[in-house]
Amino acid sequence: MGRVVLVTGVSRDIGRRFARAAAADPSIDRVIGVDVVPPRGDIGAVSFVRADIRNPVIAKVIAKEDVDTVVHMSVIATPGTAGGRNTMKELNVIGTMQLLAACQAAPGVRRLVVKSTTTVYGASSRDPAMFTEDMGPKQLPRSGYAKDVYEIEGYVRGFARRRPDVAVTMLRAANVIGPHVVSPITSYFRLPFVPTVLGYDPRLQFLHEDDLLSVLGHAATGDVSGTFNVAGDGVLMLSQALRRLEKPSVPLPAFAVGRTGSVLRSARLADFSPEQIGFLTFGRGVDTTRMRSELGFTPGFTTEEAFADFGVSLGASRRTARGVVSA
Questions:
Q1: Are 80 and 70 spatial neighbours (Cβ–Cβ below 8 Å)?
Q2: Radius of gyration (C-alpha) of the chain in whole angstroms
Q3: Residue 86, Cβ neighbours under 10 Å: how many?
Q4: 279 Cβ neighbours under 8 A, 6+ residues apart
Q5: β pairing state of 203-204 and 236-237
Q6: What are the structural domain ranges in the chain?
Q7: β-pair partners for 312
């Protein structure tokens, strides 16, 4: 028999698209999509169950549907999409705790895949050139999305120790980008005038949305466990990225970027959290050797190719987006 996969967070586009792709995989018998509201758009053969992972009822769903594989994608990056910071933390941290408790109580669960993020490493002037999976942030996050992810990963490691019979895979994805992605970083690049931190030109790594879907499927149907950085090859400097989008930049002192970010956040044009400002100051690089050698996955898009595909969707010419005209 094939797998029975439960996917959390299917009301958001990337969760819906993954669940639909998983349902089309011949090695998977059934896919159950879970969220508090129904997904928008076609979900194909996915069976949707309206459930809140913060509620112990999620354990009943896992037991009733004979779930053996759980793919956790219900981690929210911005408080605006969750109804405020308190709700965001509840959904992220409390929701993950309840989901892990449900998985621990379900003897049939054999695989857990968690979509994490390279944001867990933070961004500072003391960072290494490339973070490996064995490294941690130079400064522990004190608030926001980064703190949520740091806590979530700790709970997932605890679950792995309590249930050594469950194969646990954590995918630390670089900033996901593509024509359909709505996130803090894509909203930033969609601004008509892009504020930058004066005196800094950070290194950026991206993962194309299609590669995220592919690596999630690879992890859900494979037999490898562990923690893996996932990103496209290479890096792109912020100045290069803006030239390729043909976007005017506005260099500002760091404190002014924070104030500008508050205005943009209030207007719901972009989210400028502390970790976002840190990333746009110092950037981040991650080593993906383990992704290739142990996980056995190679992205179809490099960082530059992923950004070029996103740039074309914003109206940049394909030659310019690929850096042929200006780099």
A1: no
A2: 19
A3: 10
A4: 119, 123, 202
A5: antiparallel
A6: 3-178+206-231+286-298
A7: none
- Cα–Cα distance measured from residue 4 to residue 62, given in angstroms and rounded to the nearest whole number: 10
User: Tokens 């508050």 — which residue?
Assistant: 262
Contact assessment for residue 73 and residue 14, using Cβ atoms and an 8 Å cutoff: yes
**115-134 as b/e, with b when 16 or more CB fall inside 10 Å?**
bbbbbbbbbeeebeebbebe
Count of Cβ atoms closer than 10 Å to residue 206 Cβ:
30
For the chain, list the strands marked E by DSSP. Answer: 3-8, 28-35, 47-50, 69-72, 111-117, 167-173, 175-177, 194-197, 203-204, 206-208, 226-230, 236-237, 249-252
Contact 235, 285 (CB under 8 A): yes
The amino acid at residue 46 is V
Q: Alpha-carbon distance 224 to 293, whole Å?
A: 11
Going residue by residue through the chain, which has 327 residues, state the pLDDT in tens, using 9 for 90 and above: 568 999 999 999 999 999 999 999 999 999 999 999 999 888 999 999 999 999 999 999 999 999 999 999 988 877 655 566 788 888 899 999 999 999 999 999 999 999 999 999 999 999 999 999 999 988 887 778 889 999 999 999 999 999 999 999 999 999 999 999 988 899 899 998 899 999 999 999 999 999 999 999 999 999 999 999 999 999 999 999 999 999 899 999 888 887 776 777 666 666 677 778 889 999 999 999 999 999 999 999 999 999 999 999 988 766 666 775 444
Cβ neighbours of residue 293 closer than 8 Å, sequence gap 6 or more: none
Question: What is the Cα–Cα distance from 23 to 36, expressed in whole angstroms?
Answer: 20
Contact by Cβ (8 Å): 32, 49: yes
Q: Which CATH number fits domain 3-178+206-231+286-298: 3.30.450.20, 3.40.50.720, 1.10.3720.10, 3.30.70.1230?
A: 3.40.50.720
Q: What 3-state DSSP class applies to 138?
A: coil
DSSP state of 91: I
